[in-house]
Amino acid sequence: MSFKLNNTRPTVIAGPCSAESREQVLETARELKSNSNVKYFRAGLWKPRTRPNSFEGVGEEGIKWLSEVSKEVGIPVMTEVADAYHAELVLKHGIDAVWIGARTTVSPFSVQTIADTLKGTSIPVMVKNPMHADLGLWLGAIERCLASTKGEVAALHRGFSNYTQHKYRNAPMWEIPIGLKSQLPDVSLFCDPSHICGNTELLSAVSQKAMDLGMDGLMLETHPTPSFAKSDASQQITPTELRVLISNLQIRSSLKDSASNRNLSSLRIKMDSIDEQLMELLSGRMEISKLMGEFKKEEGLTVLHLKRWREIVKTRMNWSKELGLSEEFILRVLEQVHKESIRVQTTVMNEGSNSQKTKTDTL
Ligand code: PEP
Ligand code: MN
User: Fold this and answer.
1) What confidence tens digit (pLDDT) does each residue in 310-339 have?
2) Which of 195, 230, 232, when mutated, tests ligand 1's pocket best, judged by the most ligand atoms within 8 Å of its CB?
3) Which of 90, 176, 256, 326 has a Cα at 20 to 30 A from 27?
4) Ligand 2 centre from 13 Cα, in Å?
5) Is 0.90 topped by the overall pTM?
């Protein structure tokens, strides 16, 4: 069993975030069975939840439901393993493949324990990127698995947790999976648009982008009634929606590109990704300007505080000097950002009081 099932892209892995009941698992699998792109059924049994007291998965009980999907519905199944005990159970029950989750990839100790348990077996393993943008940790986890299982080891890009993130649940930072591919060209690279997006609106665009970058396949969370899902309800789609999403993808071949074109497009991808992050940061900054506007309105303060502006210029000019940026350029950027921040704060201050002029007018 391998993830490289054939050469038609995308190879799709679909199924619910969590196995919730035997009925939900089998109903989803039967609907997915008729979709020829779906090569693997996924369902989490042990759910790594950020906060306690949320649904933590059905655990061991769900293994037999997955075995039914594999043997009776006829789709190979995979689930997440986060420790040696999970790995032992999965091997004992003949689960077809596993993935290592983002919270596990951050810990070389945990990855090694799983790799040791899989040693000498032929189970295929997918390794999700770690929570934060660390290519070395991702490569290391893949290398640990490559040294243990005789089955295929593939990489799964699920985006990176980012404090300033607004648009995506996990920032794609496409340059990182591209970096991985250039270091491990023989390792298949899959994308998990569900965990990148955290919603359903962006799924198609992210799936298309993964295809345009030449990725081998997609993992998409699929649930018969997404709004009732016990985990990740906002990002799951129905099997019918999955079919539409896949059929709308444009699959272009990137193999014909010359080496110099590939270098140029890899630089463009990095630039796009940095610009996307710049926009996220600016949007986060403007959100803070709004909150400041509300605060100043309540306290009866003026929008512009010259002393604070002078401090901003001084500190930012020092930071940018250390980074080798031109002073003239940074001053122009700062002035524009400041101007927009004043506009945002003034709008907030004037909301609901059109006739009442704020103290900004005196500036
Ligand atoms: C999952 O696939 O449901 C999951 C928990 O993923 P991640 O490790 O990417 O958060
Ligand atoms: Mn999930």
Assistant:
1) 999 999 999 999 999 999 999 999 999 999
2) 195
3) 90
4) 13
5) no
Q: How many CB atoms lie within 10 A of CB 244?
A: 11
Q: What are phi and psi of 221, to 5 degrees?
A: -75, 130
Residues with CB under 6 A from ligand 1: 17, 44, 48, 101-103, 128, 158, 195
Q: Supply 4's token pair.
A: 């490289």
CA distance 289 to 96: 51
Determine the residue of 50, 158, 161 to mutate for testing ligand 1's pocket, defined as the one with the most ligand atoms within 8 A of the Cβ atom.
Answer: 158
All residue ranges of the chain with pLDDT < 70 are 1, 4-7, 165, 254-258, 353-363
Could you give the residue ranges of the DSSP H alpha helices within 49-129?
63-68, 84-92, 102-105, 108-118
Q: Write out pLDDT tens, residues 254-301.
A: 545 667 777 788 888 889 989 998 999 999 999 999 999 999 999 999
Tell the residue nearest (CA) to atom 10 of ligand 1. Answer: 102
What are the helix (H) ranges across the chain? 22-33, 63-68, 84-92, 102-105, 108-118, 135-146, 175-183, 193-197, 203-212, 239-247, 259-299, 306-322, 327-350
Q: Could you say which DSSP state residue 18 is in? A: B
Nearest-10 Cα torsion for 307, 308, 314, 316? -170
CA-nearest of 65, 17, 8 to 37 is 8
CA–CA dist 329, 333 (Å, integer)? 6
Tokens 């071949």 sit at which residue? 253
User: Are the C-beta atoms of 224 and 28 separated by less than 8 Å?
Assistant: yes
Q: How far apart are the CA of 103 and the centre of ligand 1, in A?
A: 8
State how far the Cα of 325 lies from the Cα of 328, in Å rounded to an integer. Answer: 9
